[in-house]
Amino acid sequence: MDQRRCATVRFSIPFCDVDALQVVWHGNYFKYFDAARDRLFRDAGIDLYRTVENTGLVFPITRTQTKHIRPLHFRDEVDCKAVLVEAECRLVLDFELRLADTGTLCAKARIEQAAVRVADGTLELRLPESIRRALGCACHDGE
Fold first, then answer.
1. Fewest beta carbons within 10 Å, which of 23, 67, 92, 115?
2. Taking a C-beta distance cutoff of 8 angstroms, is the pair 68, 24 a contact?
3. Superfamily classification of domain 6-141
């Protein structure tokens, strides 16, 4: 059984996210991934904005990789799942976008974030202990 922390959000594709070909524009996928990542962090009690205030660290995205498998369309009901892969030196999350009714896999992604000091832009080589502790093993699927 997989003990990595995860979270799933369900939503319907809005009209404003589709392009002239009536499919979701590829850039909007990151918005969906961010909603699932935010749910995972909130479930762990982490508010990255408050973390900036408390630690002086920001967590910019340093790498993304996305595989588009099946296009998403207006009004598709979708589940976006975020799975924490690493939370020691950086944040690494895997994502899956699936049609809610059939479970059909539509896209997969991996996104990495680093910890950077706001004051001078230096890279931290380890995440703060408070974040590593909060991201201990658990899994929550739901809306």
1. 67
2. no
3. Hotdog Thioesterase (3.10.129.10)
**β-bridge pairing 6-12 and 139-141:** parallel
Q: Which of 74, 78, 76 is nearest to 18 (CA)?
A: 74
Token pair belonging to 86: 């690493």
**Residue 141: its pLDDT value, please?**
53
Contact present, 101 and 77 (Cβ < 8 Å): yes
| Interval 96-128: pLDDT, tens | 999 999 999 999 999 999 999 999 999 999 999
In terms of residues, how long is the chain? 143
Q: Annotate 74-93 with three-state secondary structure.
A: CCCEEEEEEEEEEECCCEEE
